[in-house]
């Protein structure tokens, strides 16, 4: 169990969307200090947060953030991108960008911050996955989030004996810039953030933040046609 009260948290992509809601929720729960990262730290508007420059795909930027935020006890890997790729038609560079940001970004930050969190007596990592980790409907975004889910599961095993708990957050559409062009029911970032932070405090391995996500997860052990009915239509 990791208490948020009194903790020092770093939220990647903490200036907008789900990250901004996470920063607000952390202060509501009594976090002592919250680093909110953005590629341009001037875009972080919450005056309670410590703005920090971070490009998660750049090892030097990650190392600099870990140097500056040496008091972190909780790392939240929220930053992500959705390149809307088609595996057959999109530039391979777009496929790589989904993986660089959504898989290698959290990997670089985990490697940089695990020693920091350990030095500070242990703590927690929350990785923001997606319902699309479990259903391949969004090209390389789905694939990168499936890979991140697997990374999270491995890290959880590695880090448990080192005093660091790991939670994965899965959710469907959330009302942020990422889904601005999508006309569908969306969860509120504040509600998703509240569930994620409750998951950190309860030591949940996974947080499934909406009905669609719970439904998709429950279909994973069924025949493939249950999750992909279009194959048998
Ligand atoms: N919205 C949804 O429906 C939904 C559903 C499931 C999961 N998610 C996941 O939730 C997380 C947050 O997404 P969101 O919906 O809040 O999206 P968003 O509003 O588009 O925000 C994306 C965030 O990621 C940061 N970011 C992107 N690329 C980065 C990079 N290379 N280096 C550092 N920061 C980078 C952005 O920082 P800047 O401010 O510097 O651009 C921004 O803060 C993502 O991991 C996303 O995949 C979203």
Automatic annotation (TrEMBL):
UniProt keywords (A-Z) are: Oxidoreductase
Q: What are the boundaries of the signal sequence?
A: none
Q: Which InterPro entries match?
A: NAD(P)-bd_dom_sf, SDR_fam
Can you tell me which family this protein belongs to? Belongs to the short-chain dehydrogenases/reductases (SDR) family.
Q: What is this protein called?
A: SDR family oxidoreductase
Q: Which organism is it from?
A: Streptomyces tauricus
């Amino acid at each position: 169990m990791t208490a948020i009260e009194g903790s020092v948290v770093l939220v990647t992509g903490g200036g907008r969307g789900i990250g901004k809601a996470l920063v607000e929720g952390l202060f509501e729960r009594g976090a002592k200090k919250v680093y909110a990262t953005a590629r341009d730290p001037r875009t972080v508007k919450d005056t309670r947060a410590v703005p920090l420059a971070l490009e998660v795909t750049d090892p030097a930027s990650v190392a600099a953030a870990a140097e500056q935020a040496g008091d972190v006890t909780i790392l939240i890997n929220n930053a992500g991108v959705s390149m809307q790729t088609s595996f057959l038609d999109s530039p391979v560079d777009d496929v790589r960008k989904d993986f660089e940001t959504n898989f290698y970004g959290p990997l670089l930050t985990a490697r940089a911050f695990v020693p920091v969190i350990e030095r500070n007596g242990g703590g927690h990592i929350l990785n923001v996955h997606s319902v699309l980790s479990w259903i391949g409907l969004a090209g390389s975004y789905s694939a990168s989030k499936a890979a991140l889910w697997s990374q999270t599961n491995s890290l959880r095993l590695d880090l448990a004996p080192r005093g660091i708990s790991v939670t994965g957050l899965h959710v469907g559409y959330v009302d942020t810039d990422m889904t601005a062009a999508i006309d569908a029911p969306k969860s509120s970032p504040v509600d998703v953030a509240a569930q994620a932070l409750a998951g950190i405090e309860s030591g949940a391995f996974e947080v499934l933040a909406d009905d669609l996500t719970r439904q998709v997860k429950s279909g994973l052990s069924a025949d493939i046609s249950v999750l992909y009915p279009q194959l048998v239509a």
